[in-house]
Each structure stands twice: as C-alpha cells, then as structure tokens.
Amino acid sequence: MASPNSYKLSCSIPGHEMDVRGLSAAFFPDGAFVSVSRDRTGRVWVPNSSPDRGFTEMHCMTGHQNFVSCVCIIAPSDTYPRGLIATGGNDHNICVFTLDQPQPLFTLKGHKNTVCTLSSGKFGTLLSGSWDTTAKIWLNEKCMMTLQGHTAAVWAVVILPEQGLMLSGSADKTIKLWKAGHCEKTFTGHEDCVRGLAVVSDLEFFSCSNDTSIRRWLVTGECVQVYYSHTNYIYSLAVFPNGQDFVSTGEDRTLRIWKQGECQQTIRLPAQSVWCCCILPNGDIAVGASDGLIRVFTEVEDRMASPQDLQAFEDELSKTTIDPKTGDLGDIKMEDLPGRDHLDEPGNREGQTRLIKEGQKVEAYQWSVADSRWMKIGDVVGGSNQQTSKKVNYEGKEYDFVFTIDINEGGPSMKLPYNVTDDPWLTAHNFLQKNELSPMFLDQVANFIIENTKGHTLGAAPPSAADPFTGTGRYIPGSGTPTGAPVAKLRELNGGAPGEYRLSEEVLGSLEKLLVSVCDPCASEQPTTEQISLLWKTSHWPEDIVFPVLDILRLAVRHPQVNESLCGGDADNGVALCNHLLSLMKPQARPANQMLALRTLCNCFSGWRGRALLLAQREAVLSHAADLCSVCNKNIHIALATLVLNYAGSLHGQPDLEAKAQCLSVASAALESVQDKEAVFRLLVALGTTVASDQTAQDLAKSLGVTSQIAKYTSVTDPAKVGECCQLVLKELQ
What subcellular locations does the record give (predicted)? Predict the structure, then answer.
C-alpha cells in the first residue's frame, strides 16, 4: 500500500490534440478545472462517477486564432455567479468566456505579442503579462493601466490578496512589485528567466526560473529560502492551501511535491515538457504536458487508479527515451556504468536517479521511497556532448551541437544546430528568423550557445550601442529658487548669459510689457504675437538660468490669447510646448524648473485650448509627473497634486476609464511619499473627484488598495479639511 504522503496516478485525461499549456481550478461546478492547449481550445473538466474516477469534458471553448498559452478564473460576481474564464493566446488577445457559451463573451485587445500569463483579483480585476515586455491591468473590458519597466518578456504575473499589490516575473531575470501602476521594488537573485510566480500569503510568494531554482520571497525584498531539485527549466508552481507546501513542474519531465521545505516526491512523466500544474479543491494535483494529456495525481487511496492502470503508466514511462544532452542525468560514460546488480542497493532519497548498462543500452531508474524500489523511467539514447567529439546529424547535416530550445512562444521545443566555427550571434539570429520568433531573444539565445559550448566560439558579440539619450544630455541637479520679480531676476542673469543667449534691452522690455499685460486685468494693451514668440524662444535658455523665464511663462499661459497661441493656435505649437515642459521635469532636472514646469501645465487648464492639449497629451504628462513623486520638495509635491486635481476635474463625468485609471495611479503613488498636508488634501480631492459617480473607477480604486492606503488620514485634524475629505472619499468607496 502506498504511503499516506505518496501521490499516485488517479487518471489520465485525453482530449487535447497538442501540448496542454495552462490549468486552473474552477469555482463551478464542484471539483472542476479548466485546461488550455496549443490546439487553440480551452476545456472545462468535471469529475465523473465512473469506476475509472476520471473527468468528463463539460465545455469546449474556441475563439483564439493561434495557440492558447494561459488561463485563469475570474471569481463569481452578481452578474456572473459562476465566474468567468480568461484565456491568453499567441494571437496577442485575451478571450473571456462564460461556462455555457463556446465563443468569447468579449475579447481584450492591447498586447502586441503573445499573452502568456494571467491572474485575477478582487472586483473582477485581471492582470496579464506578455512577450511585448509589459503587463496590463484590465477591468470591465477596458485596459486600465500598462505596467512598463521590464526589458524582456513578462512570463508570470500574480495579484497579491491585499493592499493592491501585483507581481510580474520576466525573462530579464527580475521580479517587480507594483502598486497603483508603479514599480515599488525589483527583486533580483535568479540567474535566468523567471517562469512562474505563486502567492503564499499577503506578505510572501514563490518564484521559479530557468536557472532550475525555486525561491521564496518576502514582499519587502528578502529572499528567505532557495529550493533545488529540478535539473532543467521550471515552468510552473502551485501552492497547497496550508501556504507552506507546493508543487512544481518543468522541462526535466517531472512533477515534484515539496513539503516542509524539502522535495518529498518526484513523479516522472512520459513527456518531455511538463508545462503546468494546479491544485484541485480536494487536494489532488493536475498537470498538463507536451504529449497533450492531463494527468491527475492523488494521495487518497480511494481515488488512485487501478493497479492495472498504475502498471500501464509505469510501463509507458519505462519505454520513453531520454536525451542525455538535456543535462538531466549528468555526464554519461558508457564504459563507467555498472550493471543491473547496482539496482540491488536501495536509494537514499526520493527521486534519486541511477543509470545502469544493460548490454549495449543505458537504462535510467528512479528510486521511489513510497514503494521502496527502483522504477525504470526510460532508455538513454545517444551520448553526452561533453564526452564525445562525434558530430550530431540533424536534417541531413552534421553539427557539433544540436540544442533543444524552449522559447515559450506557445510552441513546442525547437532544435538549434550549431558548429563551434559558427558565429553564435548570427546563429541565434537565423534561428529566431527561421522560427518566426521575436528578435528580443537574440541575446538570450546567443548567450545560451556560448555558455553551453564552453566558450569554444570564433565569433564575438557585437558591441553594445551607446544610448544617445543619456550622458551629456542629462540635466545637472541644482538648487535654489528665484527671488524678487521675474523680470529683475531675468535682467540679473542676462548679464552673465552665454553670448548666443544674451537678450537685448529691447527684448527684455518686450517681456516686461508682456508680463504686465497678462497679470493686470485692467491693462490697456494685450499680448502681441511678437511678445509671445519672444517668450517661447527665451524659454529655451540654458537650464541653469531659465527659471525666471518659466515664471513669466506660467503666469502668461493663464491669459486667453497666450493660452490659445502656445497651446493650440497651431497644432504643432501645443505639442512643442508640452514636450519642452516635460523635458524640464526630468528627475535629474533642477527643482525650480520642475516646479515651474508643473505650475505652467496646471495654468494651461485655464483655457480651453490648453485643456484640450493636456487631455490629448495626458499619458505622457502624468507619466512624467509621476516620476517626481519621490522628489523631496514640498512645492513640487503641491504642484504635482494640483496637476492631478486639474486632470480629475476635467475627466469628471467623462467615460474615459483609462484616463481615470492613470489619475488614480499617480495620486496613489504620490500619497506614498508626499508629506505636506496641502498636497495630501489636493490628492484626496483628486481621488474623490475621479471616483465620484463612477462605479468602475470605484472598483478599480479599491482593487489598487486605495481604501487602506488613505485610511490613516481620517484622523488628521490639522488642517481639519484633510480628515474630512478623506472620510468623504472613503464613503464614496464603500
């Protein structure tokens, strides 16, 4: 009889015609789960009462135009009491299904490459990750935010249960923690692509990687444990309800069960790639593999397969062939291998492998602690690349190496032939082009070749190109704010200005007249076209002396004539003004310039031309403004809060959910660092204005953790308006 802690096959589920790439337990019906496959379908499976204790296909979903890569379940709601099913595919789309229709309820479009990971959260929030290097937050059929920061494909995403925190893992080897659309922390430690993430609790999570390791992290940044046992890429993780034990699957053909921090059981499958796994409600484990089968394993004896089926599974496993070039079995020297009598000695740990020589064959066995015996897991074919100089034949030609590459583009493993006389970068380029893969993997594939050929290459990596937008173009941080009247300061600085920037007395006089005309409502003279042109030209003074000009500019744009001329008299004028101000708001820029640029943008809202311009340029403006959240400057924070408030007011009553989402994101991010109570008050007003009378915006705010974030301000009494405003916002979010 099997050990109580030993998992055995419960059933094998045919149905898919190609690799099973994703699995997820469903809320309905009881015990059901969903699978997706390269055959472009998703399927819902429900337990049946037949003697084989198997599953029956309840529902088949179609709608993707290419491979389906991932799946997740959106929790039940009043509208959809049985929940929804979301699937991501190689066609760049996300399809969302009900449980009773084969075609999508709706399709989410926005990613520019394969959608390879999905996670759902509260209030119907959906988080997706893609080979386009971004993650996206979706709500009510709309993309609310795009999370940018990774430099390579995003292979894994999860939403943490509380606080509006989200995680993404990437081929750039990093994991990023996001809050309200902003990256709060980057986790480093993995030495290769991060392939999977799994939530442990509000404060902890697991990650797995192509580097064959699993890591346990605190959201504060510490890696508290590293787990080793797999011998090849690890593709997926699933955590048991106790939050401590978990399972993992990978390219080494195994499902591994981890308990109390140790690999307690290794189950090998007769398929090269074990792509995915999930824990079913009854504690059983479902896995999907490259042979198109779903297999369910259980530790409950009543749910185990019959002895005949268990033996058939073991026989199938014993007939598989193992390629030593995968590295799963280590280096193999035929002449050094022992004979069958070596199997008389018991193994010393679960999953231990042992190779024996049987005539002219090499057989691989694995030790089962539960059964106290060696189980044959396959025949080893070929020889180790490290131990032979023989050429490998591939497609009629001989090569020094033929690598098996998994680029996870939704397809199966691919072959990459290589000779040591070849240039690794050209080989990688040709491989990607032949297989119609993204060029973003060039470095990854080339470095894989170099590392796995022990550096015996004649080609060299091309030199990295210099970034033309860094270096001398960066602003030098400074300090100080203008004192006295803007024109007086302008005259003072003009005396020491470089020759090509020095202004004549006539120009200075024109700017002074402009300032008088825009600030004095009783002024008899209106700003002239020439004066406005001089102001625009002078605003391009060197950054270290331009601040008095910006002070004049921020006052001038309030005037209807200046507002219309600079913000939209000519379409190009408005965009040029916007871009110029954003260039002065870079994090490295002088604080005075940053503040005055923000104030100028705020004042642009005073005219309809300026308002239209800033709404059209909203994404760029708010993104640059958000970068100033961490600047420790009270005046900048107040100007930033005022800008967000202007946007919130302009968007109130409008159906632009994406714009409101960005307002929520920037306001929430600013509240993390802003201390000044006036800035806090304006941000709270902006939040309240954004969510007022808009249920979707309210749901998004709650999913981002805004409620818990602002609760601390309810007790603020100095000034009282902060506490009162906070209570009103919280009431709106109830």
Answer: Cytoplasm; Nucleus; Synapse
Range among 206-220, 331-345, 651-665 rated most confident: 206-220
DSSP state of 346: P
pLDDT in tens, 447-501: 667 666 643 433 333 333 222 222 222 222 222 333 336 888 888 888 888 888 8
* Residue in the structure block whose two tokens are 């053909």: 253
Nearest alpha-carbon partner for 21 in 134, 136, 158, 116? 116
Residue with tokens 């193999």: 332
Residues 6+ apart with CB under 8 A from 626: 182, 665, 666, 669, 670
Residue 34's alpha-carbon distances to 26, 30, 86, 142, 334, in angstroms, are: 7, 12, 10, 24, 44
Task: Of 34, 116, 40, give the one whose Cα is nearest residue 74.
Answer: 34
Helix locations, 65-165, DSSP H: none
d(CA 203, CA 208) in angstroms, rounded, equals 17
User: What are the tokens at 356?
Assistant: 């024996």
Residue whose C-alpha is closest to residue 618's, from 591, 651, 587, 655: 651
Give the DSSP per-residue string, 416-445.
EEE-TTS-HHHHHHHHHHHTT--GGGHHHH
What's the Cα-to-Cα distance from 144 to each of 77, 167, 200, rounded to whole Å? 20, 16, 26
Token digits of residue 504: 């004549």
Characterize 261-284 residue by residue with b for buried, 16 or more Cβ atoms within 10 angstroms of its Cβ, and e for exposed.
Answer: eebbbbbbbbbbbbbbbbbbeeeb
List all residues 6 or more positions away from 445 whose beta carbon is below 8 Å from its beta carbon. 405, 407, 416, 428, 431, 432
Q: Are 225 and 262 in contact (CB under 8 A)?
A: no
Indicate whether 239 pLDDT > 70.
yes
Q: What is the reported pTM?
A: 0.66
Q: How confident is the model at residue 727 (pLDDT cuts 50, 70, 90)?
A: very high
CB-based contacts of 91: which residues, under 8 Å, 6+ apart? 64, 65, 66
- In contact, 729 and 688? CB cutoff 8 Å: yes
* Interstrand relation of 68-74 and 373-380 (parallel, antiparallel or unpaired): unpaired
Specify the higher pLDDT residue, 498 or 639. Answer: 639
Instruction: Quote the CA–CA distance of 541 and 535 in Å, as a whole number.
Output: 10
> What is the phi/psi pair of residue 355, to 5°?
-105, 140
DSSP run (H or E) holding 678: helix 677-691
Residue 595 CA to residue 553 CA, distance in Å, equals 13
- Maximum alpha-carbon separation in the chain: 109
Helices (H), 460-528: 486-494, 505-519
Q: Which residue has the tokens 């009783």?
A: 522
Sheet with 20-25, edge to edge strand ranges: 20-25, 33-37, 42-47, 55-61
User: Who wins on pLDDT, 401 or 593?
Assistant: 593
By the 8 A CB rule, do 293 and 13 touch?
A: yes
Beta strands of 331-371 (E only): which ranges? Answer: 353-358, 361-368
* Residue of 13, 12, 42, 48 lying closest to 29 (CA atoms): 48
- Residue pLDDT, tens place only, 356-397: 888 777 888 888 887 888 888 877 765 443 333 456 666 667
Please write down the HEC assignment for all residues of 145-189. Answer: EEECCCCCCEEEEEECCCCCEEEEEECCCCEEEEECCEEEEEECC
